[in-house]
Design brief:
By secondary structure, this protein is mostly helical. 78% of the residues lie in helices and 0% in strands. The longest helix is centred in the N-terminal third of the chain and has 35 residues, at 2-36.
């Protein structure tokens, strides 16, 4: 029991440092560029992190199924620590971009493990509470990170936005030492060729979100490599991503629904603060408070979601979650220059309810509808779908914003896009079959 609380503390700290790092970097990079120069590399400080963290997520999940959770999770935190140390010591923007890539590798390895380990340790009905705790960390970071960033930039140095990760990482790794995992790894050879092809293909496809020239070359290269990866995985004895996973209908549709849900309105959280600042004229701190509304809604629905899965099954809950997303989309389309703080806060609260339900249910489904030796890769594929969907949605919204005649028009267009995508996400979950968890099936026929 003691080791259980140690590891729970470790995974909560991992979520906290990941969320604060992502949020605080968004607010302080403009100051970093002023000191280091190299404005042409501004976007790449985010892109390098996004690509490496996204690509490494499913790879880390598969490795955990083969070698155990503890070793891979600890490796991710150590790499993240090293990346943070390097970022804090960067002397040029090029160095910062390269070191952010290292940090992204650590984050990609580390990020899926809080949910994976919680799935190993806790019963289904208790996992919602942990998911609520994770979302609470993101809510805290939404408020705390801008304040920390401002304090570091004004009274110390921007380098401390990275250095602050180091002691937290050390404590998280130390807390992991007493952990004795119950999961017994299923050893298998590492699919290095598959990992290389997967990394190259997804990297090229993600670059489509930022490059302006040679788009067709990136797209063609990414698609060809992805096709080669799939062909290779079908033949190899120890695939990186077991494609048989997608033969499980509910798993496949949950991954698809997660992608579409994130591609719809999840990226709106990046633009709501802009609306509050540029259109409403609010200060930095106030502009971030609607994101706290999202976190509150997320926590409220996540706590009972584990019990709801046992009682109602996956399909009904995902329909409810996606219906709430449509409600959020309708409210988003109604936003105009006169929309006050309460309206925006309420909209983000409903969005939190929607994503809290969708993410908690799909995470539980990813773990309960597969064999134990596939739990890591199945969970990490859900995270991968979220990352890809968020990248696509945020990019599409950014395109609407930059092409609009003014900020308000751009905000309106990107939110209209989100509404239509939410309808598509709702339609996708209609294909999910009625099912409950394994523990529920022991008590009642489905």
């Amino acid at each position: 029991m003691k080791s259980k609380w140690f590891v729970m503390t470790s995974i909560v700290l991992a979520v906290l440092i990941s969320s604060i790092d992502s949020t605080i970097t968004n607010t302080t990079v403009p100051h970093i560029v002023k000191e280091l120069g190299g404005f042409e590399l501004y976007a790449w400080s985010f892109v390098a992190y996004m690509i490496t963290s996204t690509v490494l997520t499913p790879i880390a999940g598969r490795l955990s199924d083969m070698f155990g959770r503890k070793k891979v999770f600890a490796t991710g935190m150590i790499v993240f620590l090293i990346g943070s140390l390097l970022c804090g010591s960067a002397q040029t923007m090029l160095q910062l971009v390269l070191f952010r890539a290292v940090q992204g590798i650590g984050a990609g390895i580390m990020n899926p493990f809080p949910s994976i380990i919680a799935g190993d340790l806790l019963k289904v009905e208790k996992r919602g509470t942990v998911q609520a705790l994770f979302s609470g960390m993101w809510g805290i970071s939404a408020v705390l990170a801008p304040l920390l960033g401002a304090l570091f930039v004004e009274y110390a140095s921007w380098r401390w936005i990275f250095y602050v990760n180091i002691p937290v990482c050390i404590v998280a790794v130390l807390m992991l030492i007493p952990y004795k995992e119950a999961y017994v790894p299923k050893r298998a050879p590492v699919d290095f060729w598959g990992a290389a092809m997967f990394t190259a293909s997804i990297s090229l496809l993600l670059l489509l979100t930022v490059v302006e020239k040679g788009i067709w070359l990136y797209a063609a290269g990414g698609i060809l490599l992805l096709a080669a990866f799939i062909a290779f995985e079908l033949k190899t004895k120890s695939p990186l991503i077991p494609l048989t996973l997608f033969r499980k209908r509910n798993i496949a549709w949950m991954i698809g629904n997660t992608f579409l849900a994130c591609a719809s309105l999840f990226g709106a959280a990046s633009y709501i603060p802009l609306f509050m600042q540029e259109v409403r004229g609010n200060e930095l701190f106030v502009s971030g408070l609607p994101l706290l509304g999202q976190a509150v809604g997320w926590m409220l629905v996540s706590v009972p979601a584990g019990k709801w899965v046992i009682r109602y099954g996956y399909r009904r809950l995902l329909l409810c979650g996606n219906a709430l997303l449509i409600v959020c989309g309708i409210a988003a389309v109604m936003i105009n220059a006169a929309s006050g703080f309460l309206f925006v806060f309420s909209m983000m609260f409903v969005q939190g309810l929607a994503y809290g339900l969708i993410f908690t249910v799909t995470t539980i489904g990813a773990q309960e509808l597969v064999e134990p030796h596939q739990k890591g890769i199945s969970t990490s594929m859900q995270f991968f779908a979220r990352n890809i969907g968020t990248a696509v949605g945020t990019t599409m919204m950014g395109a609407f914003l930059t092409k609009a005649p003014d900020t308000m028009a751009g905000i309106h267009q990107l939110l209209v896009y989100g509404f239509w995508m939410s309808l598509l996400a709702f339609a996708s979950c209609l294909f999910i079959q009625s099912a409950r968890t394994a523990s529920a099936r022991k008590r009642t026929a489905v």
